[in-house]
Each structure stands twice: as C-alpha cells, then as structure tokens.
Design brief:
homodimer, 5-stranded parallel sheet, alpha/beta, Rossmann fold
C-alpha cells in the first residue's frame, strides 16, 4: 500500500472545538462520516476557561485521536467583549440587535483558528477541516458567512503543499444552513451529550451559564424549539 | 473632522517584520509611502532568537508607532526544519534544489502571520498590511506566490468588519516581482541599514550567519549582484 492510499484509508479531519454546542455537533457529524478526529481548541485570553474544560471532556468522550490546545494571546490585539473588559451584553432584544456586528466579535478570530487548523492538517496529512459556523442563527459575525468560508478554502488550496500538489483541502461547515433547533435535533440523533457542552459568554466561577447573554439566549431558544430537554446548568 | 477622515489622515500599516532583509526593505517602502508603521513579529518556536532581536532593533531605528511580538507555539504543530530538529540544508546546488518544497517550509506560516496581522489591522483601524514575500528569488514556498496573496486579500475582505463595511483591505507585496539584488538596491536607496537585519536559518550563538544555508546563499548573491557591500557578520 502506498503512503497515499494509507493516508486516504485513515481519513483524518481537524475539527475546531470550542466546547460549545455547535462545534460538538460538528465533531459528532465528522465522526459519523468515518473520520479520525483531531480536535483543536484555543486558549486565546478568554475571560474564563469553562469552554476549554468542556472541549477537553468532549474530546475524551468522543475518543479523538489527538486534542490540541493552542495558546494565542488575543489580549495583545484586543477589541472584543470576549477578551477585553467590555461588558458582555445581556438580554438583547432581537429588534435592538439590528444589523450591527456585536461587541462579542473577536477580530479575525475564525481566520486565525482556521489558519492554525490548516497548518495542523498539513502536518498530519488531513485534507478536511470542520468548523461549526452557522449563517442562520448566527450573531452577525462576518467570518461566519458562506462566502467567507468559500474564500478561505480557495486561499487554503493555494497556501499549502497539499493544495499545490493537487490534494483538495476542504473546509466543511455542516451546520451552515441549519437553525439552532435543527442542530440540536441532529446532534441528539447522533448521541451528543449536550450536558458536556458550554456556550455561555459570562459563566459563574463554577462554570454555570448566565442564561442572559447572546449565546445563552440562542441556546435556550434552540432547545425549546427542538422540543429537547435543556441540560444546561444555569446560575 | 469625522472619525473616518481622521483614520485616513493617520494612514496606518501593519508590516510583518521577521528582522530579515526583505521585511526590513518592505518597512522602509511603507514608511516612504507615508504610512505610520505597526510592526508585527512572531516568536513561533524558532530555534534561535537572533531574528527577533533584529526585528526589535529595526523597529526602534525605523521609529514605528508600535512593535508587537506575538507568541505562537508552532512547535506543537511541527513539520519544518525551522522549528523541529530536522537539519537545515547547507550549500544546496541550484540544480539539486529542483521544484520540491524545501524542508524549511513551515506549514501555513504566512497564512497564520497574515491572519494575525488582519486581526491587529482591524483593531487599530489599518487597511494596509505589508508583507515581504517574493516570487522571483523565492524558495519554493507555496504561500509566497501572487495567487496566494490575491486569495488571502479576497478572504480578508470577507472576514472582517472593515471589509464588510466597505473599507478595502489591501495586502501589499512591494517585493513580489523583484530579484534579491533589486530589493537591496531599493532598500539602500531608502537608507536601510542592512547591518541590522538577520537572514540566516542557522546562526551561531552570538548571532553570526552561517553563510551556507539557503537564506544566506540568496542574501550573499543579492549583495554581490547589487554591487553593494555585504554588512553581514559571518561565522
């Protein structure tokens, strides 16, 4: 068997894992498609580490081949409520929200995450990168849109050895057209334990969700619409 | 004066600075075009820190507004002679070199560098990012080609607030079509002190160049062809 055949047989995927509901569902989908999972999380100056702890538990439960936590000091760059001392907005009304890009947006975050994933994919010989971006219930982040993903994929194929040598790199976004409720239904069908996942932007010290930030509100609404029990521990 | 006019007046550029000959020339070019310079370097598990020391001195001498050194642990990813224990090739013959991508290639490095630059540009309100890639005397890295840069620029404009809000982000590559000799002539005309720059992949502990790695050979040849004195301290 040639090296190439061997690599195809392995079918490796890098899955970006935030420890949240979306990325965990994505991991279950990738697994159900027969990929060996290499999960990648980031310590990027988050105010709390509940999500990294969740990502670790999920990696263990999903039996990933390797779980990598990269350090990146986004605080040096700043500019977001998620890494700076800007207040996390609570109980936003849909109407108030408007078309503005929210303060929880971290500049170029998905671009940086995907770039690291691309580097790792190249080293381990994976041609598939999974990311849980979503264009339906998304929060107004420019780097969650299908046109951004398409442009990143095109760039990735020009950036790397694999791309240059004709192995197509694919950025897979299985949630991009799903509502939060559809995501939860899909994950539930695949046996995802959502009790392990963490979504809240502003949890208590013991990791319980605030129930009022943007992310909590979308999550709650999703469970309600999916008619699924919400296993989140709220404050 | 509106915020927008104020920002245009400022004309900020993020310049990727490796402390090497190319990026230092790029910085001088950006400065000559009237930009306020924000220089960005990376500590990415290089085997030596001579290049970071060079970048710091250059930032000081060029009077940049801010010099930022980001930590990124590329060693976790691995896969290159520049960060792993793979031997740096010496005295390669042009013919031996062939079309292969060399072992000094770091997977997705320019993609990651440019992604950080994009995040920083967004925070400080810069729309121009300068990078010293070169497609003439380049060493076979896929992420130094014009088509990669064009694809990154397109992606960047879809990834960010600035792009979405209609401020065009530009990835500027003033060296892309120049030979090493032309780069040196241009930099010399702009007053660059090449004695401050560092190119060697395998320097001695006191920062002197080996004179035999890929990067040293290209640099030497450049000074010879430009008819300029080579200020490099060799071992």
């Amino acid at each position: 068997m040639s090296d190439e055949e061997d690599m195809q047989k392995m079918k490796k995927a890098v899955v970006l894992s935030s420890g949240g509901l979306d990325s965990t569902t994505v991991m279950a989908i990738a697994k159900s498609r027969g990929y060996d999972i290499y999960s990648l999380s980031f310590r990027y100056g988050q105010r709390h580490c509940a999500e990294l702890e969740a990502a670790r538990k999920i990696a263990e439960q999903m039996q990933v081949v390797q779980h990598l936590v990269m350090d990146m000091d986004m605080k040096l760059i700043g500019g977001s409520a998620l890494t700076d001392s800007i207040a996390v907005p609570k109980d936003w009304d849909e109407k108030e929200r408007g078309d503005d890009i929210p303060v929880t947006y971290v500049p170029a975050r998905n671009t940086i995450f995907l770039s690291y994933a691309l580097g790792w994919a190249e080293v381990i010989g994976a041609t598939d990168i999974f990311i849980g971006v979503n264009a339906v219930d998304y929060s107004g982040y420019p780097d969650c849109r299908p046109e951004f993903i398409a442009a990143f994929e095109k760039m990735a194929n020009l950036a790397t050895k694999a791309g240059v040598q004709g192995q197509k790199i694919r950025i897979q976004t299985p949630l991009i057209q799903l509502s939060k409720a559809e995501i939860i239904r899909k994950g539930t069908a695949l046996g995802v334990d959502y009790g392990l996942t963490h979504s809240c932007y502003d949890p208590s010290d013991d990791g319980r969700a605030c129930g009022h930030c943007d992310s909590c509100i979308l999550r709650k609404k999703g469970f309600a619409e999916a008619g699924a029990p919400d296993p989140t521990r709220y404050q």
